[in-house]
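Record Porin family protein, 233 aa.
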Amino acid sequence: MKNIIVFILFLLSFMGHSQSKGMFSKDPIIHLENFHKQRVYFGYYLGFNSFDFKIDYKTVGQDIQVEKTTGFNVGVVTDLKLQEYINLRFEPGLYYTKRTLHYPDLTREVDAIRDVNSTYIHFPLLLKFSSVRTGNIRPYLLGGVSSTLNLSSNAKSIDDNVQQRFRVKSWTSNYEIGFGIDFFSEYFIFSPSIRGCFGLKDELIRDNDPNSPWTGNIESLKNRAILINFTFH
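=>
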C-alpha cells in the first residue's frame, strides 16, 4: 500500500505540473465548466485494494496473523446530483483480494496456514460532499454503506478446516468513509479517491467442532480494507 500511495502522489504531482497553466495558474482555463450541472452522469473506475480481517477473541492467547496482499478493483459509477454540493453515488464493482491466515499455535504447516481468496461483487451507496470548485480542482468527502457478495466464501461447503476449507458468509455489510479530488481536464474528469471499508457483522462460519483450533476461539471476524480508485467521467 505504501507503493500505491507513492504512485498516487507522483500522479497528482505530474498532473499538476503538466496542466499548471490550465489548473493552478492565476487565471486558469476552466474545463468542463457545466459538467456538474447535469442531473445524472456516469463513469468507470479502476483501482487497488488491501483487505484485512479484524479478529476479536473469546480468550486471551496468541493472535492469528493476517498476511495481506494488494488486490484490484474495477467497476462503474452512477452519480445523481441531489444538491449543488451533494451527490448520491452507486459504484458497483468487482474486487479481488487474497489474505493468508497464520495460526501460531499450530505446528504443521498444512494446519497453520489458511489462504483466503476472495472475489467480491461490491455494492456501495455513497454520499459525495464536494467543496467549492477552485479552478479545475474540486476536493470531496465520501461516506455511506455497502453490501458485498463473496463469490469465494465456501458458505455452502460441508467441509471445514479439517479438510483445509476456510468458510465465511456469502453476504456482508459495511460502512465506508474517505476522500478524493476531481481534476477537470479538457475532455474528461479524473477523480482519484481513497477510503476505508469496515465490516459491520461477524462473517465467520465456525467449524463443525466447537473446539476447533481454527475457529473455536474467534468471537468475531470482520472485513476491513483500504480502497483506492481512479475514476473517469
